[in-house]
Every structure is written in structure tokens, then in C-alpha cells.
Amino acid sequence: xxxxxxxxxxxxxxxxxxxxxxxxxxxxxxxxxxxxxxxxxxxxxxxxxxxxxxxxxxxxxxxxxxxxxxxxxxxxxxxxxxxxxxxxxxxxxxxxxxxxxxxxxxxxxxxxxxxxxxxxxxxxxxxxxxxxxxxxxxxxxxxxxxxxxxxxxxxxxxxxxxxxxxxxxxxxxxxxxxxxxxxxxxxxxxxxxxxxxxxxxxxxxxxxxxxxxxxxxxxxxxxxxxxxxxxxxxxxxxxxxxxxxxxxxxxxxxxxxxxxxxxxxxxxxxxxxxxxxxxxxxxxxxxxxxxxxxxxxxxxxxxxxxxxxxxxxxxxxxxxxxxxxxxxxxxxxxxxxxxxxxxxxxxxxxxxxxxxxxxxxxxxxxxxxxxxxxxxxxxxxxxxxxxxxxxxxxxxxxxxxxxxxxxxxxxxxxxxxxxxxxxxxxxxxxxxxxxxxxxxxxxxxxxxxxxxxxxxxxxxxxxxxxxxxxxxxxxxxxxx
Length: 480
Ligand SMILES: Cc1cc2nc3c(=O)[nH]c(=O)nc-3n(C[C@H](O)[C@H](O)[C@H](O)COP(=O)(O)OP(=O)(O)OC[C@H]3O[C@@H](n4cnc5c(N)ncnc54)[C@H](O)[C@@H]3O)c2cc1C
Description:
The chain has helices at 6-12, 36-51, 53-56, 77-94, 103-114, 125-141, 246-249, 274-279, 285-314, 320-345, 359-384, 394-397, 403-409, 418-432, 435-446, 451-461, 465-476, and strands at 18-21, 24-26, 57-59, 66-68, 145-147, 171-175, 179-190, 197-200, 215-220, 226-230, 253-264, 268-271, 348-349, 355-356. It is of the alpha+beta class. The protein folds into 2 domains: 6-281, Butyryl-CoA Dehydrogenase, subunit A, domain 2; 284-464, Butyryl-CoA Dehydrogenase, subunit A, domain 3. It has a 6-stranded mixed beta sheet with strand order 2-1-10-11-7-6, with no helix packed on it. Strands 5-8-9-12 form a 4-stranded mixed beta sheet. A two-stranded antiparallel ribbon has the order 3-4. The protein starts with 5 loop residues before the first helix and ends with a helix. The mean pLDDT is 97.
């Protein structure tokens, strides 16, 4: 089964996964009210690949079957541009509000499989080979994959360096005839209700000799012992008038418990090997995955600029203040677009003939985005002001007693009718002000770790010869 349709994706979610939300243990993720909107929203992402095959489908390099372009292992600079087209098309569909459409993990595992040699070290050749096979399965079955990387926070003074006695952090506890058994927890797994499988791979490095914590694998969501504790739904109303984004894009986040979960041997990619665990995320991963995340972020900022511009027009706000705020937002969108282009214009060849964008522009962007995204929300609130709350519901719009008042008193400037104005401000509120917006803002601040950590890392890894030479001239020159 190559590239799936939305209906096929929804059928795949009907399994025995153990997942809780609100006061319910969910038996059907597709129809539960907390999940139904996003399940169908994600199904639309699967349908999209058949609606826009020219952007989203490529032939599998071995079978020729149509697979999603996000599974591509780029083998040339042109491939990177080709992948960009597909990633941008997906990002446009959710206007970047869904951070974890499956292309995120598809790109990640395409990179892992392409640069397999980064995993085939310190005796992990078999694990690396299994992962290459797994990526074939992922792309040919068009699997929706989530991931969980971070240890739960219990005591921030100690958690970063797990002691051997730690009984919270996910760890291997036994070998079995067919594989390994793992126990513990990780935080979080975005997309959990809408994934077919979950991936565990390294987040932050472990201290030396932490072998029992050094595991990586992928397993189906319904694997016995896996338990998913979801946060409250932020979907809001089910209809697209009241909640234009929440009604379809609440991708969910779950805390994950591994209650003695058996992982089949062919799905174990790192089996108690701290050296490999601490190595694999330090090479090509960053420049590969950042193409997906930053194409999404750039698209989201462009949408925010468009939204803010339409809001200002709706209320005839041509004030210098509004123009300056719009200019600030445009600058973020344009800088993001330019950084992605700069990275793609000077790609680098990694091992096995794999090509990924230049790391520096994308790292700088990733480190800055946690500050721009909340500011974009703030700008939308500053421009929107009370208008963001003068937004009758769809039920009110259809109330014959109320509608004449709405049409008379809530229309916009330059003849904009009330319905268009209300839709616009509801969209803006869902983007910047609702519970969904608050969760998405938290996501932008913290997915792939905090802005602070990203800033720290980006500059540590950046080439500094020219910067230092500019300084050195003044330190080394003759005084008289
Ligand atoms: C909505 C959402 C979805 C997520 N989805 C997933 C998922 O699907 N899979 C997954 O594995 N994880 C997921 N995560 C978890 C995410 O990876 C972690 O939340 C992230 O790594 C941040 O963890 P932390 O609190 O340890 O961050 P830290 O980097 O420790 O930051 C914590 C605080 O310390 C500050 N700080 C850190 N370093 C410095 C410094 N040097 N100087 C000054 N201040 C500093 C930060 O600014 C921040 O305020 C998700 C998180 C969120 C919020």
C-alpha cells in the first residue's frame, strides 16, 4: 500500500491503542469528540497527496510505487528543491498550525536511512541496517509516525543526568527471545491519537555508561503496555465557522508510559549503546529535519502576515502604528523565507551521496523562531484588539432574530459584509488567542527544545573564523 488516501489513514487508526483524554479511555480515536476534527483534518493531509501528486508524490526508488515526497532521501541539490515544493504544499494546507504532519517524521527517517553509517558505529551495524529496512516499510506503507524523545521532568537538578537508580526514565529492563523489554516514560508524543507507530530515538545526550537508557526503536501504537495520556482537547467548536483552525488542526500531545513493552528485535535500532546514542543526532540530522520545520514555520509566518493585513483592511486601519506592526511581521516572514532559501541554495553533501541544506541559516532560524512566533501572536492581538471578541457564532449568524443586527452593526470597512469580517476575526482569534493558539505557541517555544538551548547550540556549532579574524585585527595591530 503506497501513498494512502485519507479514508485508508482513518481505517488504520482503529486499533487497540490505550489512550486517555479528559475523563475517557478512548476506544475509537476517529470518532471521539476530542479527536474527530483533527483525525479528519489529518485525513485531508493524506488526501492532499492524491490531489496534488505533481508536488507530493515521487516513485519509490526500488519499487516505483508512488510515495510521499517527504520520504525522499535527497541525492542532489535538485532533490532538496523538489522536496521543498512538497513540504511547502503540506505546510500551506495546515498554514503551519500542525507542527507534526507526518512529513516531519518522514523527513527524519529518510535522513537516518540515507546516512545509515552515522548509526553503524561502535558495534551498531545491525541496528543501522534494521533502520534502513524500517524506512522502506515507513514509506511504502505510508505510516503516520509520532516520536518521543524527552525524559519526564521530576527534579530539574538531577534529571538531565539520569542516575542508574532512576526508575522514571525510559530504559531497557530485559532481553527476550524476540527482542527487548522497556519500562519508564517519556514526554511528549504530539500526534499520538493520529499515528500508526511511535518512534523512540535520542533527545539530549546521556552521561557515559548509561547503556540501559540508550535505546532507539519504533513500534505500533497498539503494542501491549504502551499507554498515552493526552492533554485536554483545545479543538474548540466542531464547525469551521466558529473554530476555523481548532476544528481540524488540534494535533494533540500525549505523555507516554511504557509499562514493560516488548520491542521486536527487528525494530530495535539502538540496543543499550551510549556511544551510538550520543553520536547519531550530532551529524546530518539537524540540517535534514530543519528543512521541514523551517519551511513550515516560514509558511506560518507568511500566513500570519496575510491575516494581520486582512484584519487591518477590514477595520480600515491605515495608521502608522498598524503599518509598523505589519512591517515587523512581514520582516519575520521574509527573513524566514530567505533563510530557508539560503540554506537550500548552498546545500552540503553528506555520507552515501546524501544532500541536505546548509545547517547555519536553519539553525539561526530555529533558534530565533521561539521568539518571533509569540511576537506574531502579540501583533495580531494588538491589531485586532476588541474586534477579536466581537465575533458571533455560526448559530447566532443563523438566528433570524439576531442576524439583522449583526449585518447592520458588525460589517467591516469599505463595504465588507459582516460574515466576512466575523470569519476573519474568528480566524485571527483561533490563530493567536484561543486555547489552541496558546498550545501552538507553547509548541513553537519548545518543540525540539527551547529557544535558549537552540541559541546556545547554534552559535557553538557555527563557523567563526571570519568573525574572529575581524576582532583579531584590532588585537594584533601595532599600537603606534
Ligand atoms: C506542545 C509541545 C509538543 C511537544 N511534542 C513533543 C514530541 O512530539 N516529542 C518529543 O519528544 N517532545 C515533545 N515536546 C517536548 C519538548 O521536546 C520539550 O518540551 C523541550 O525539549 C523543552 O524541554 P525543557 O523544558 O527541558 O527545555 P529547556 O531547554 O530545559 O528549557 C526550559 C526553560 O529553561 C530555559 N533555558 C534553557 N537553557 C537556558 C540557558 N542556557 N539560558 C537561559 N535559559 C535557559 C528555557 O528558556 C526555558 O524557559 C513537546 C513540547 C511541547 C510544549
